[in-house]
Amino acid sequence: MVKGLEDEIDFSNDVIVLWEEEINEINTTLWYGKGSPITTELLDAFAKFVTDFKDNDKKARLALEEYLSEDDEYIVFHREEIELDVPEDVKEFTKEMKVTNIGLWIDGENSIIVDYMIDPEESDEILAVKFDSNLEFVDIAWES
C-alpha cells in the first residue's frame, strides 16, 4: 500500500501515514508529523536503515542484550506472568525476539523505531528500540 500526501491515513490531527509496506516480512511504516520538513537526506537515511537492516538489527540486539542484562523484568514478566517457555540467558532470549514493525518517523525528532517481541502470538509486550536519523542507537522503551 503506497500512500501520498493527498490520500494519507490520518491517525490524529498531527500525524499521518505516508507510506506502508511489508519489507522482508516486517511491517514498515513512514509516519509524518504535519509541518515537519521532509528532506532528501532524511529519506536517504531511512532508506539506508531499511536496506542495511541486518546490520541495524545486530546493533539493536546488542542494545537489547545490554538493556535486559541491566534489567531483566521483561524476561521475568514473560516467564512468570505469562508463563512462556523462554530462555533465561539474555543472549539467547534476545536472539529469539522477533522484529514486528519498523517505524520511520518524520516528526521533528526524526527517529526510527524497531519493535521487538518475544512471542507476538502470546504477548503484546514490545521492546521498542529507537535510532536517530544518523542511524545511531538512542533508547529502548517497554511498550504494549
Can you give a write-up of this model?
- The chain is an alpha+beta fold and 144 residues long.
- It has one domain.
- Helix content is 32%, strand content 34%.
- The protein contains four helices and seven strands; from the N terminus they run βββααααββββ.
- The radius of gyration is 16 Å and the shape is elongated.
- It starts with 8 loop residues before the first strand and ends with a strand.
- Mean pLDDT is 92; it is low at 1-10.
Q: What is the structure about, briefly put?
A:
The protein is α+β, with helices and mostly antiparallel strands and 144 residues long. The protein has four helices and seven strands; from the N terminus they run βββααααββββ. A seven-stranded mixed beta sheet has the order 1-2-3-4-5-6-7, covered by helices on one side.
Radius of gyration: 16 Å
- Number of E-type strands: 7
The strands making up the biggest β-sheet line up spatially as 1-2-3-4-5-6-7
What's the N-to-C terminus distance? 25 Å
Tally of DSSP helical segments: 4
In the residues, how many domains can be counted?
1
- Largest β-sheet summary: 7 strands, mixed
Oligomer: single chain
Helix content: 25-40%
Shape: elongated
Strand content: 25-35%
**Overall SS class:** alpha+beta
Mean pLDDT rating: 92
Unreliable stretches covering 5 or more consecutive residues: 1-10
Helices and strands, in order, run as EEEHHHHEEEE
